[in-house]
Specification:
With about 500 residues, the chain is α/β, with parallel strands linked by helices. It is built from 16 helices and 23 strands. It starts with a strand and ends in a 17-residue tail after the last strand. Bound molecules: nicotinamide-adenine-dinucleotide. Nicotinamide-adenine-dinucleotide binds next to helix 8 and helix 9.
């Protein structure tokens, strides 16, 4: 990668013109490794011009031809996955293996987009009236944009762009300014796969670039993933500019642990779901609701040695289980939540704050922490921490635990661990979250289903990728047709009916 990451517009790298740039860090060493240009509204306009010019030609391709580009893209991503994963790990901090897993989840969306000829099929009714046929079709919107967060620099752009473009749209990506390099490789690989210039563009930047996207009349729809405060702003501003918007926000995912659960499976599940990627996943389990004091005592006892033994280190070390946090600002924020939890009266059963790694003294490393006896009025329960900090809440019975999950302002995912079918079924049917797991800690739907939360975890009407992605990126047209042979003579001034 070059020292400065610039925009990618109309099939070419385009140096930034705004004069503003941001630093990109390697969080394992706490040093700036390169910089990224920040676009302003006029650079966004250049990308919109390119995407608008490319749209008619791209949309006119039969879906099968667009699918063939996705087939080649799948192969290219697979061939390059090792280098791509190292790039993600370098700027984000997660382990290379974890980065590889996230790219694989993105490749699965590309695979889903290969089926676009089938996904775009409409419905047809012969003879809705005598000699009259009716059918529906889904057509692309035009230029659409994606604004993505730091925590999945590969997977989330791949949740959006393959489906959007397979539907016939042209795309502008504004990746996170913290780890923007993957987006450039993505653009190059799309070109190598045969995507025409201007169909996929990248503009980098911060809120100036985002505001340039939200106010640009040439952009028809915006997909966003990030923090809830940003998601709410993006949704309302985008809608005020007459755009279609799906804005996915933050989360506080609960895992309810019933007394009949297999505690060894529960412990394994919490280790991965709570501390994987240093807790910087929107589907991370950050709250364990233990039903009964004996379940809570057992859980904390089992977790303590496991969390203490977590191998914390740079993401590039194959032995590392948990890498650093993404930035100093975020590190300080997570530290602040641990202080707040202590102040508010939670029991800090395991304190991960004191951790320095030889040779990585300036990295943003933190050990895993466990808070016990967390209550629903505490900030560490109410707010998203997005770090390796688990809150254990004690509930006297299932009803209290289930109500807690549903009453939380976030509604991304929730899981229950139990052997009891009735309890699991009740949880699945009544929980107020968009995704639910039964003995599955991170219930992220596969690419051919759709991903999304409820309440303050998603603003808008559509979830991402799968069938909901196709609906979001297309508009429906209903056609009623009759040929001259079926037309009766004479004008009819009444509303047409079947009769
Ligand atoms: P963020 O909201 O800070 O940034 C996301 C994007 O918005 C970035 O591209 C950023 O440049 C832009 N942005 C930031 N502040 C802005 C502002 N004031 N105005 C306009 N644009 C702005 O989020 P993040 O810290 O990069 O990502 C972490 C958050 O994303 C967490 O809250 C996490 O839960 C959430 N997330 C949610 C999902 C989901 O599917 N629901 C998935 C991944 C991450």
């Amino acid at each position: 990668m070059s020292d400065v990451i610039s925009h990618y517009i109309n099939g070419k790298i385009m140096a930034g013109a705004s004069g503003r740039r941001g630093d990109i860090y390697n969080p394992a060493i706490g040093e700036v490794i390169r910089q990224v240009d920040f676009a302003d509204a006029s650079e966004v306009q250049t990308a919109v011009d390119a995407a608008q010019a490319a749209f008619p030609g791209w949309a006119a391709n039969p879906p099968l031809r667009r699918a063939r580009v996705m087939f080649r893209m799948k192969e290219l991503l697979e061939r390059n996955i090792d280098a791509l994963a190292r790039l993600v790990s370098e700027e984000h901090g997660k382990t290379v293996e974890d980065a590889k897993g996230s790219i694989t989840r993105g490749i699965e969306v590309v695979e889903c987009a290969c089926g676009i000829p089938h996904l775009l099929k409409g419905e047809f009714t012969e003879d809705v009236g005598t000699g009259v046929d009716s059918y529906s079709m889904r057509q692309p919107l035009g230029v659409v944009a994606g604004i993505t967060p730091f925590n999945f620099p590969a997977m989330i752009p791949l949740w959006m762009s393959p489906i959007a473009m397979a539907c016939g749209n042209t795309f502008i990506l504004k990746p996170s300014e913290k780890d923007p390099s993957f987006a450039m490789r993505l653009a190059e690989l799309y070109k190598e796969a045969g995507l025409p210039d201007g169909v996929f563009n990248v503009v980098h930047g911060d809120k100036d670039a985002v505001n340039g996207i939200l106010s640009n009349p040439g952009i028809q729809a915006v997909s966003f993933v990030g923090a809830t405060a940003t998601a709410e702003y993006i949704y309302h501003t985008g809608v005020a500019h007459n755009k279609r918007v799906q804005a996915l926000g933050g989360a506080k995912n609960h895992m309810v642990i019933m007394p009949d659960a297999d505690m060894s499976q529960v412990t394994d599940a919490i280790m991965g779901a709570g501390y994987g990627s240093a807790g910087e996943r929107c589907m991370a389990i950050s709250v364990a609701v233990a039903v009964g004091d004996h379940v809570a005592d057992d859980l904390v006892k089992r977790l303590m040695p496991r969390v203490q033994a977590l191998k914390v280190g740079p993401g590039s070390d194959p032995d590392t289980e948990m890498g650093p946090l993404v930035s100093k600002v975020h590190y300080d924020k997570v530290m602040g939540y641990i202080d707040a939890g202590i102040r508010e009266g939670a029991e800090l059963a395991l304190d991960g704050r004191e951790l320095t790694l030889q040779g990585y003294e300036n990295g943003y490393f933190m050990g895993g922490s466990i808070f016990d006896r967390v209550t629903t009025d505490m900030s560490i329960y109410k707010e998203e921490i997005f770090g390796p900090v688990l809150s254990v809440v004690r509930a006297p019975d299932y009803g209290t635990a289930a109500k807690m999950v549903s009453d939380h302002e976030y509604g991304n995912g929730a899981a229950i661990f139990t052997r009891d079918g009735d309890t699991a079924r009740h949880f699945v049917n009544s929980t107020q979250t968009g995704m639910v797991g039964v003995n599955v800690p991170i219930p992220v739907p596969m690419a051919f289903h759709s991903f999304g939360g409820w309440k303050r975890s998603l603003f808008g009407d559509h979830h991402m990728h799968g069938p909901e992605g196709v609906r979001f990126y297309t508009k429906m047209k209903a056609v009623t047709s009759r040929w001259p042979g079926g037309i009766r003579e004479g004008a009819d001034f009444n509303i047409p009916t079947m009769g």
